[in-house]
Amino acid sequence: MSDVQTHEPDDHESAYSGLLVNDAHWAFGTDFEDPLAGVDTTVPDGVDAKALAAYCLMLGDDALVLSQRLAEWCSNAPDLEEDIALANIALDLLGQARLLLARAAAADPDLVPALPEGSPVPDEDRLAFFRNDAQFRNVRLTELPNGDFAETIARVLLFSTWRLAVFERLSHSRDAVLAAVAAKGAKELTYHRDFAGRWFVTLARGTEESRRRLVHGLGEIWPLWPELFETHDVEHVVAKAGVGVDPAEVAAEVEVVIEQVLAASGVDRPQRGGLAGVQGRKGRDGGHTEHLSRVLTEMQVTARAHPQGQW
Amino acid sequence: MVIAVLHREEVLARAWAAASRVVDPELPMLTLLDLGVLRDVGLEGAGGVVAAITPTYSGCPAMATMRDDLVRSLQAAGFDDVRVRVQLDPAWTTDWITPTGRAALTAAGISAPGPAPYRDGPVVLQLTPTRRSLRCPRCASSEVELTSEFGSTACKAMYQCQRCLEPFDHVKEI
Fold it and tell me: How far is A44 from chain B (nearest CA, A)?
């Protein structure tokens, strides 16, 4: 009989007592597990599997890249509580990314980079660690460097407001996997948006310096905001098939929320136009700023050094 | 035939018992059943067992450990062929934590969640701190203050009791 199930009454003096009594489960590690184990990943009738996969990649890459950026705050945030909060948000987004990349791989196995025979690296990790910047489909807003805490808060507010609106609609997707991932993710994003919204108001109404930084940070990221509402061909196809969301449709609703925060903060909308793409290509086409390749280098270097690695 | 049916029910009960003993790796005072993560245990084929689990949060790092623990507990109970499947729908909610689970949390100094928010239509932005009516799990004072909506694990918020000054975790409603 395994000793994992039984445990001694807790010694309340030590926060670790419950863990140390039964540490057998940690010894087994957390080896590769399919996040969609046993989930039916059949593509619904009448849906182009490649378009569905490309769409999952877009939403998955948004979450993956911003998660990596937010994780850079770990041990660097202004105080411990905000450090933990940003790490928690990063973790939620990483979980969403993992599910979405796994769903992309299941819908279109051709997307998954090939590795040497016998490599144990699962599909979602191959997509995360073995694609180059031009193969990423995230919006450019997620890849910018963090800036200061105020700029990070402004970005989390914009991103989570947009994503929550998309996910609420996506929870009715004809693709059962996407619907479930979105329904779950919407609950998480509600916390992210509230967190960022409260900090946005706090910084705006705090000191002269905190307000200056917030207004500056919002202005820095504003040119990348319109890109989130531009309907890409893939989004158009999946929305028409009833599995995805046309981001142009959430624009009005998102606007109401952002206006609410700006009004409560006494901050004006920045007067800056959108950043053009390179030869017409933006994030969803794989056209990125130079910052993406740098953040990917750090994120991918270990996995690429050990393509046969097991963690 | 009747004997076969009875036997099957007995086997299923044994599988449920073995799966129900497994505790959460990060909240070891709570079984996966009390946490609402263990959704189903069933028999398949000749002697196979399949357990269904629902993640608390998308990025919950404990999922793989939960799976391993379920497999080992069921194997220890004599089931060789064990499969754990992920059930994503419906999404996990703190409303699934059982009364036993809530009592175990409180006894361990962790404040149990209130009812999960009911949503109808677009989620409303909340610019003021979430109001919860909580009591300090140590001294039962209701004078508690929210320190952060995010805590030591994805599922918890941090509070401090204003009477005994003890900080404590609250499992947040989701």
Answer: 17
Contact between chains at A81 and B158 (C-beta distance less than 8 A): yes
How crowded is residue A115: how many other Cβ atoms within 10 Å of its Cβ? 15
* Number of domains, chain B: 2
Query: What distances in angstroms separate CA B133 from CA A79, B2, B170, one per listed residue?
Result: 26, 53, 11
User: What is the arithmetic mean of pLDDT over A267-274?
Assistant: 93
> Which residues 140-159 on chain B approach chain A with CB closer than 8 angstroms?
147-152, 154, 158
- Over residues A77-115, the pLDDT tens digits come to 999 999 999 999 999 999 999 999 999 999 999 999 999
- Name the CATH topology of A49-305: Ferritin (1.20.1260)
Say if residue B26 is in the same domain as residue B58: yes
Q: Which chain B residues contact residue A91 at CB under 8 A?
A: 57, 59, 61, 154
Q: Which domain holds residue B147?
A: 97-118+129-171
Domain ranges in chain A are 49-305
Looking at the fold, whether B76 and B8 belong to one and the same domain comes out as yes
The separation between CA B45 and the C-alpha centre of its own chain, rounded to angstroms, equals 29
- DSSP category for residue B80: -
